[in-house]
Amino acid sequence: MEVTLSKAVVEDAAAIHEMQTRAFLPLLEKYQDHDTNPANETLERVMERFNQACVDYYIIRNAGVATGSIRVVKKGDNHYWIGTTFILPEYQGQGLAQQVFTQIERIYADAKSWGLATIVQDERNCYLYEKLGYRRTGETKEINDKLTLCFYEKKLV
């Protein structure tokens, strides 16, 4: 499996938006989080983020095929946040995400800490992040009676 990341440009926004919608639709149906789910995000919102100086989007490719995306936000000196990240459903469970995180940490080698949020009820994602060295901060945010976000941090110093 040859996973590569290519920095996206604003012209990639529509393709990222389409993949994001497809990737998050099953979660939207499961958790009914209509106001917060990335499947409901508009193309305009994705494009707004592209234009933020502190945001980088990457397209994830496996053997040259676009399989997902990761958004990195620079929060301050050497502190980064992993924003909307996804692998298309048909490519999940193949170890791609682990390779993506390894590459992102290499690209942002100056990072002293990383943060992210995920769904408490999504045990697979929680397991993945913990396996990658992320630790729960203890902070949570209830979105609805089916979904609660939990926050993770990885300190590198």
- What is the tally of helical segments? 4
State Rg. Answer: 15 Å
How can the largest sheet be summarized? 7 strands, mixed
- Alpha carbon gap, first and last residue: 31 Å
Q: What's the pLDDT, averaged over the residues?
A: 96
CATH architecture: 3-Layer(aba) Sandwich
Topology as a string of helices (H) and strands (E): EHHEEEHEHEE
Q: What is the highest CATH level, the class? A: Alpha Beta
Q: Count the strands?
A: 7
CATH topology: Aminopeptidase
How big a fraction of the residues is strand? 35-45%
| CATH homolog superfamily | Gcn5-related N-acetyltransferase (GNAT)
User: Which structural category do the helix and sheet elements fall into?
Assistant: alpha+beta
| Shape, per Cα inertia axes | globular
Count structural domains.
Answer: 1
Instruction: Kindly state the percentage of residues in helix.
Output: 25-40%
* Unreliable segments of 5+ consecutive residues: none
Strand order of the largest sheet: 1-2-3-4-5-7-6
